[in-house]
Amino acid sequence: MCQHFVEFGPAKMLKPTRLLLLGAPGSGKGTISKRLLKKSPQLHYISSGDVLRSQIANRTEIGLKAEKYLKNGALVPDPVMVRLITHQLQTHNWMDHDASWLLDGFPRTSNQADQLNDVLDKYNSNLTLVVELDVDQKIILHRIESRYVHLPSGRIYSLDYNPPNVPFKDDVTGEPLVKREDDNAEVFQKRLDKYNEKIGDLREFYQELGVWRVVSGNTSDIIYPQVEKLVTG
């Protein structure tokens, strides 16, 4: 496969770049993704969390199914997620071999990864890089207790390190921020436990494909430069 570099602002990126960001819930995937997108505006983006929240907010059939699992701290079943994400990629024509995109938070299991890989392989659009964000999970639980969100946009704020300009108001719209029902330590620990059960097989799957990398740190300022270096080569 022929690969070449194009300028994205001051940095260069391998094109096509088909990147998957993985990490425990609350590890900062959304924050890292936003910084990458700001640096590389031609990089398309799809967040499994954003897609799910949109479906839940719109009270769609798939959203209602997902909501039941999330409220109990469980992962959404593989068939539901694979169908949802595949549909998003196809809708935006991101299956094109020349398209560059970033997946945030999906797949989360080796079964999902295998199914997704089968779909991408048919379009000759396999992932070129998988990056795992390694963050201390005790710190993640502390973050969750101080996290608030603007539901319509998915913008996330932390009362500790990323507070809104006006307390409990979205910086862009001024609308109220809310605390998600699953953003508490007890429920979130269940999500972390589920992630820890699945990540070993998922890591092995992408290691065998030769695209797996890990970056470690407890803040986005530590993690992001490492991710950017991997993406830009």
TrEMBL record:
<keyword id="KW-0342">GTP-binding</keyword>
<feature type="binding site">
    <location>
        <position position="112"/>
    </location>
    <ligand>
        <name>AMP</name>
    </ligand>
</feature>
<dbReference type="GO" id="GO:0046033">
    <property type="term" value="P:AMP metabolic process"/>
</dbReference>
<dbReference type="GO" id="GO:0005743">
    <property type="term" value="C:mitochondrial inner membrane"/>
</dbReference>
<feature type="binding site">
    <location>
        <position position="220"/>
    </location>
    <ligand>
        <name>GTP</name>
    </ligand>
</feature>
<dbReference type="InterPro" id="IPR036193">
    <property type="entry name" value="ADK_active_lid_dom_sf"/>
</dbReference>
<comment type="similarity">
    <text>Belongs to the adenylate kinase family. AK3 subfamily.</text>
</comment>
<feature type="binding site">
    <location>
        <begin position="74"/>
        <end position="76"/>
    </location>
    <ligand>
        <name>AMP</name>
    </ligand>
</feature>
<dbReference type="InterPro" id="IPR027417">
    <property type="entry name" value="P-loop_NTPase"/>
</dbReference>
<dbReference type="InterPro" id="IPR007862">
    <property type="entry name" value="Adenylate_kinase_lid-dom"/>
</dbReference>
<feature type="binding site">
    <location>
        <position position="147"/>
    </location>
    <ligand>
        <name>GTP</name>
    </ligand>
</feature>
<dbReference type="GO" id="GO:0005759">
    <property type="term" value="C:mitochondrial matrix"/>
</dbReference>
<feature type="domain" description="Guanylate kinase-like">
    <location>
        <begin position="16"/>
        <end position="232"/>
    </location>
</feature>
<dbReference type="GO" id="GO:0046041">
    <property type="term" value="P:ITP metabolic process"/>
</dbReference>
<protein>
    <recommendedName>
        <fullName>GTP:AMP phosphotransferase, mitochondrial</fullName>
        <ecNumber>2.7.4.10</ecNumber>
    </recommendedName>
</protein>
<feature type="binding site">
    <location>
        <begin position="26"/>
        <end position="31"/>
    </location>
    <ligand>
        <name>GTP</name>
    </ligand>
</feature>
<dbReference type="Pfam" id="PF05191">
    <property type="entry name" value="ADK_lid"/>
</dbReference>
<feature type="binding site">
    <location>
        <position position="191"/>
    </location>
    <ligand>
        <name>AMP</name>
    </ligand>
</feature>
<feature type="binding site">
    <location>
        <begin position="156"/>
        <end position="157"/>
    </location>
    <ligand>
        <name>GTP</name>
    </ligand>
</feature>
<dbReference type="InterPro" id="IPR008144">
    <property type="entry name" value="Guanylate_kin-like_dom"/>
</dbReference>
<keyword id="KW-0808">Transferase</keyword>
<feature type="binding site">
    <location>
        <position position="180"/>
    </location>
    <ligand>
        <name>AMP</name>
    </ligand>
</feature>
<feature type="binding site">
    <location>
        <position position="48"/>
    </location>
    <ligand>
        <name>AMP</name>
    </ligand>
</feature>
<keyword id="KW-0496">Mitochondrion</keyword>
<dbReference type="GO" id="GO:0005524">
    <property type="term" value="F:ATP binding"/>
</dbReference>
<dbReference type="GO" id="GO:0005525">
    <property type="term" value="F:GTP binding"/>
</dbReference>
<dbReference type="GO" id="GO:0046039">
    <property type="term" value="P:GTP metabolic process"/>
</dbReference>
<feature type="region of interest" description="LID">
    <location>
        <begin position="146"/>
        <end position="183"/>
    </location>
</feature>
<dbReference type="Pfam" id="PF00406">
    <property type="entry name" value="ADK"/>
</dbReference>
<dbReference type="GO" id="GO:0006172">
    <property type="term" value="P:ADP biosynthetic process"/>
</dbReference>
<keyword id="KW-0418">Kinase</keyword>
<dbReference type="InterPro" id="IPR006259">
    <property type="entry name" value="Adenyl_kin_sub"/>
</dbReference>
<keyword id="KW-0547">Nucleotide-binding</keyword>
<dbReference type="InterPro" id="IPR028586">
    <property type="entry name" value="AK3/Ak4_mitochondrial"/>
</dbReference>
<comment type="function">
    <text>Involved in maintaining the homeostasis of cellular nucleotides by catalyzing the interconversion of nucleoside phosphates. Has GTP:AMP phosphotransferase and ITP:AMP phosphotransferase activities.</text>
</comment>
<comment type="subunit">
    <text>Monomer.</text>
</comment>
<dbReference type="InterPro" id="IPR033690">
    <property type="entry name" value="Adenylat_kinase_CS"/>
</dbReference>
<dbReference type="GO" id="GO:0004017">
    <property type="term" value="F:AMP kinase activity"/>
</dbReference>
<feature type="region of interest" description="NMPbind">
    <location>
        <begin position="47"/>
        <end position="76"/>
    </location>
</feature>
<dbReference type="InterPro" id="IPR000850">
    <property type="entry name" value="Adenylat/UMP-CMP_kin"/>
</dbReference>
<feature type="binding site">
    <location>
        <begin position="105"/>
        <end position="108"/>
    </location>
    <ligand>
        <name>AMP</name>
    </ligand>
</feature>
<dbReference type="GO" id="GO:0046899">
    <property type="term" value="F:nucleoside triphosphate adenylate kinase activity"/>
</dbReference>
